[in-house]
Amino acid sequence: MNGCFSVFLINPGKEYLVMMTLIFLLVLVAMVMAYFGKGRLSCVVFSVSLALSLYWFHHHATDALNILL
Amino acid sequence: MNQSRITMLNILGMVGMAVVLLIGLIAQVTLNELPCPLCLLQRAGFALVMFGFMLNVVYGIKQRHYGVVLLGAIFGAAAALRQISLHVIPGTPPYGSAILGYHYYTWSFILCSATILAVAILLLLRNEGEGEFRHRFGVAGKVACWFAMMVMALNVISTFIECGPFQCPDNPVSYWLLSII
Lengths: 69, 181
Description:
Radius of gyration of chain A: 16 Å
Radius of gyration of chain B: 18 Å
Low-confidence stretches of chain A: 1-10, 12-16
Structural class of chain A: mainly alpha
Order of helices and strands of chain A: EEHH
Low-confidence stretches of chain B: none
Helix content of chain B: over 70%
Number of helices of chain B: 6
Helix content of chain A: 40-55%
Mean pLDDT of chain B: 90
Strand content of chain B: under 5%
Strand order of the largest sheet of chain B: 1-2
Oligomer: heterodimer
Number of domains of chain B: 1
Number of domains of chain A: 1
Distance between the termini of chain A: 39 Å
Order of helices and strands of chain B: HHHEEHHH
Number of helices of chain A: 2
Largest sheet of chain B: 2 strands, antiparallel
Largest sheet of chain A: 2 strands, antiparallel
């Protein structure tokens, strides 16, 4: 799917991935909304960006560390 | 401490986060150090903190706005701690340059922890005349908000140039957009 210009992508593990640029775009949209008085809507967009950030964090932080404890 | 001073501290917090993101972008361009996915997540944490401070600046000081700041700071600290744990393993080289002896991810953890501490202190401060205070969204706040939004827009552009509409590579060596044109 490397040639696909879609927001949602499918990796070899058949897991749906959302592009990381979207996190920053959503925070920017939330900031613009907050500035122009759409406080409640900006908090909804913030929640989506936080959920997306947590998704990516889970994706990048679940590899086992190569250390002996 | 009165409300206008606390608002000014929030403006400083928002500008501080914007400056941190701007320094990251300048280092990325001048030193040609592409941010890894965990680095980008730490930037996202700073952006979320910045949004929380902005809510306080635009709508006035509220407990839930500090909650937004804390969520962003905890997220950024967790991402930084994950990256520190990857590079603390003996024989594992660090990622990126060091500033004053600490790498970007270590600074990220320190700054996120400092933000949590600062918010705890701000929450402890007694707000004199909290009930009758009318919040004013002044010129300083508006200029700071536009600066923060501009830095955020630069981050959207730089992340898109690096990763495009795809998952960012684990060890990025080139910009996606520059490689296709």
